[in-house]
Amino acid sequence: MHYIQDILLLLIYSLFSVQYNEVNFLFVLAFLLTVIYSLLGFCLKTVRLRMAFGILFLAGAVLVPPMLFFYPCAVYLFMHDRRYAVCSCTFIIYVCLLFTRHMTFFHMAFCLFGCFLAVFLQQRTLRFEKLSVKYRRTQDDSRERNLLLSERNHSLLERQNIEIYTATLKERNRIAREIHDNVGHVLSRSILLLGAVKTVNKDDSLLPLLTDLEGALGEAMDSIRQSVHDLHDESINLETAIQGLIRDFTFCPVEFEYDMHLQIPKEVKYCFISITKEALSNIIRHSSATQVHILLREHPALYQLRIEDNGAGVSQSSSGIGLANMLERVQALNGRFQIMTEHGFQIFITIPKGE
What we know:
10% strand; 355 residues; Heat Shock Protein 90; alpha+beta; single chain; 3 domains
């Protein structure tokens, strides 16, 4: 954009030479050749071609003298390509041509001022381009820093959510233990004492009251048991549970990938934990694997579990009781259970969400 503006400004300046020249065929030809040369300088991508056309342009001034007044455009192109040595040599030739044409002082001053104007415009454009590049680089750096900060903040928030979730699970476990150890034992002792009271009771009028009280205590005990069971189920962290199984597995190295959200249905948790435990046990009993890979991943519509080893493809029988139990667990959740034995042994399980 600045190139076009500068060239147009130099062309307009050169056209003022009509004050010293007659507008004839040669002048119009010089103007058209300058326009063509300027367009070629803008379109051509090869610097050598632009330099060649610039030298031809200056040589054409021998045949078309008015082209000397448009030489500032050539100077601008030489400076634009940073061919300062070529520009200096052609400028010396240009000055010699001005003298051979026996131009007046005003003609020479007009031409030379146009050359200095071309140099000034090109330097101004060069500074602007450097500032533009620096500005874009600063923008890119700022955008990159913002992205890095955003990712870091997102990572910190995720870590904070995980810590909060882990603390919540620990608190649920603590509450479940407190209820089981304290309230549960008190209710159990109360039920036993009430049974003893009913045994030694001789007053038939108290029997209905004691029976109702026994039923109420039994309901309270069942409710507490259910609450403790629910708290225990909800307090299980799937990732931590799988990592515990891997720590206890010393048969061969295990590569573990986990990409699931915090909130996972308890049925899916128990299914994946049981299948992983059974699969690792089968590897110990039947496989000659030296590497195991476990992947748990959550997709928008399903949960995925993949367990694979590099042991022999027939090392685990697809008709075993352990695999049958895995299949039953997956089918109970309307999932899909696949076994592949092409490269090692692989168990691939998908369980849909919302079932």
